[in-house]
Amino acid sequence: IVKHVKNSTLVSKSDKLAKITNLMLKDDKHRIETGAPLSVLDEYSEGKFDFICSFPPLGYRVKDEVNGQHFIDELNHLIILKSSYLLRENGKMAFVVTEKFFKREKTNSILPILEKQGIHLDAAFYLPPGTLTNAGIGTYLVFLSHTKFNDLFISELKSENLDQVVESWKNRKESKILQNGNLVDCESFTS
């Protein structure tokens, strides 16, 4: 998939990982960036992307400024917020998040801020503990875009139900089996 994405960028803390990835790509169409993700995203303030995805560090709190507003929040939330300004009108974003992403009570909760700027949740796929090798906790793979849906597609993602879940999501249809897909009110979903 990466070879079909023009000017894709990998942001990594590890120069070694970036060099290995660069060698694997074997072409000049891709650019690998290393360093602090929030600083790297600042350098792309004029760029627009069709697809942005990341599995940022979870549970790491940082201070940063986004469009003149100061935040003390989880790094992954701020990466999502900064990335959202780089998304083309028909673009999509996919990020791995914890259940904290869905909390709307805090003053600077990221989800309501995203919605105010026209970025909306499309789907939230629960990944049980152990699904991701570096995360012993349950996480979610969320998809966001400029399209506002009347409902949120949710499911539990496992290898044995992957085809059914993708089909249900693509057609925005509820399955008779909850784990294979359900449509819920986005604002009332809390994980």
Explain this structure.
- There is one protein chain.
- This protein is an alpha/beta fold and 191 residues long.
- Helices cover 23% and strands 31% of the residues.
- It has helices at 15-25, 37-42, 75-84, 110-116, 162-171, and strands at 9-12, 31-34, 49-54, 61-66, 69-74, 87-97, 120-127, 139-145, 152-156, 182-184.
- The strands form 3 sheets. It has a 6-stranded mixed sheet with strand order 3-6-8-7-9-10, sandwiched between helices.
- Helix 1 (15-25) links the parallel strand 1 and strand 2 (31-34).
- It is globular and about 45 Å long.
The total strand number stands at: 10
Rg from alpha-carbon coordinates:
17 Å
The N- and C-terminal alpha carbons lie at a distance of 30 Å
Helix content class: 10-25%
List keywords for this structure.
5 helices, 6-stranded mixed β-sheet, alpha/beta, disordered N terminus
Blueprint of the fold:
Layout: E1 9-12, H1 15-25, E2 31-34, H2 37-42, E3 49-54, E4 61-66, E5 69-74, H3 75-84, E6 87-97, H4 110-116, E7 120-127, E8 139-145, E9 152-156, H5 162-171, E10 182-184
Parallel strand pairs: 1-2, 3-6, 7-9
Antiparallel strand pairs: 4-5, 6-8, 7-8, 9-10
